[in-house]
Design brief:
eight-stranded mixed beta sheet, alpha/beta, 8 strands, 2 domains, about 15% strand, 6-phosphogluconate dehydrogenase C-terminal fold
Length: about 280
């Protein structure tokens, strides 16, 4: 089996590090910069390196697209003639509805695209930040549909488990995008908003762990995240409105001096946190 990884950054590099031995696969990779390819070759995590995506895709049984969503689509479209019949393509993008819709427009029936999203990451990107433990115990989300062959869906599930993910969640693209708008995209927006406040400049000597915790993900790849936000704009706008409504309720209780209401809100939040996110 040949597996091609298109984009050898944090996610692509970390996948490559764990794939060795999966169905005795040969691993090829494409990356825009040669340095990452050379490092991966030296580390022994890939077998062949290519400066053009088409060369890496040639003859691959599985193609893992690890670029930004629109670039994933563009690269597949531009190199379609190099993708063999029967190949399975998957991705790791944080938005599913957009990319699946666009892929279906360009892919022939004999090539399966199965949307994927490993729920793992770090604040820093690039191959040098990749690790062989990034996916340990992380969930992996896939969004297959009826057009996908069951054996191909199982292949992606097997791959996700092989790289260390504790569970593989199957859902629809719309449900994925709706929930990810809350669990991931809104969290980044909150962190950005906190750091966009001018008070941050005066807060260094006043800050404990809570400010650090709440702003950890404000160190952000603005190119990637702005694309993800726009490609999921309807769901994200809904989540922002819900958050604004909650903030407004808290603001109103504060201004009214309504401790009972504040305590009710806090008790409910504590209950929800302990029920669903206890660790």
């Amino acid at each position: 089996m040949k597996i091609a990884i298109i984009g050898l950054g944090l996610i692509g590099g970390s996948i490559a590090r764990r794939l060795r031995g999966f169905y005795s696969c040969e691993i090829s990779a494409y990356n825009r910069t040669r340095e990452s390819l050379d490092l991966a070759l030296a580390d022994g995590v890939i077998d062949s390196a290519y400066d053009t995506p088409g060369d890496a895709m040639e003859g691959a049984d599985i193609i893992i697209m690890c670029l930004y969503p629109q670039l994933n689509i563009d690269f597949v479209r531009d190199n379609l003639e190099r993708i063999k019949s029967g190949a399975v393509i998957t991705d790791v993008s944080g938005v599913k509805g957009f990319i699946i819709s666009e892929m279906k427009k360009i892919l022939p029936e004999d090539i399966d695209f199965i949307g994927g999203h490993p729920m793992a990451g770090r604040e820093v990107g690039g191959y040098k930040s990749s690790t062989d433990t990034l996916f340990d115990n992380a969930p992996y989300i896939i969004t297959p549909d009826r057009s996908n062959k069951p054996e191909n869906v199982q292949l992606i599930r097997d791959m996700a488990k092989y790289i260390g993910c504790r569970t593989v969640v199957t859902t629809t693209p719309d449900e994925h995008d709706s929930i990810i708008a809350y669990t991931s995209q809104l969290m980044h927006i909150v962190a950005v908003a906190l750091c966009a406040n001018p008070l941050l400049e005066r807060s260094g000597s006043f800050a404990g762990g809570s400010l650090q915790d709440c702003t950890r993900i404000a160190v952000i790849n603005e190119t990637m995240w702005s694309e993800l936000f726009i490609e999921n704009k309807e769901h994200l706008a809904e989540r922002i409105t819900e958050f604004q409504d909650c903030l407004e309720n808290i603001k109103k209780a504060v201004l009214n001096g309504d401790r009972d209401e504040l305590e009710d809100i806090m008790r409910f939040a504590t209950k929800q946190k302990l029920k669903w996110l206890a660790k």
